[in-house]
Structure prediction request, 143 residues.
Amino acid sequence: MKKLFIILLSCAALFAYKPGDVVDEDVAKKLGLDNGRYVVSFFASWCHSCQKELPLLNRLNLRNASVIGVDVDEDEAAGREFQRKLGLKFKVLNDPQGEVVSKFNPVGIPAVYIIKNRKIEHMIIGAQNGIDSKIINLVENSR
Prediction:
């Protein structure tokens, strides 16, 4: 059973966006992506690491990118309450049906993607100490 799970997880990763891939038109429209650079963060209210990382993302003041959150909570009301409690200032797309997250298919939450002109430049999967500094370095120090 364990081997089957690993094989299925590996197959799912084959269909996930990775650096160098271009986000398809439908997903770009839902996220509001146009030409420019974006930091797209997938999160959920049940994610303990998200509770620590989102305030750091909320304080980011990027010259060269906009932050967009994607709340993957199946219970949209719980997700909206979580967003309210954290006082999120950036745009958030609620994705209770998993339409957007299924295209990215990250292997963990939180997951951050840096996207420029609809092309994925970087991805950061899982909890990261100093996520804000890492994002600043990736966004502000690259062209």
Observations:
- Residues 17-140 form a domain with the Glutaredoxin fold (CATH 3.40.30.10).
- Residues 22 and 119 are 4 Å apart (CA to CA).
- Residues 1-12 have pLDDT under 50 and may be disordered.
- The helical segments are 2-14, 25-31, 48-58, 76-86, 101-104, 131-140.
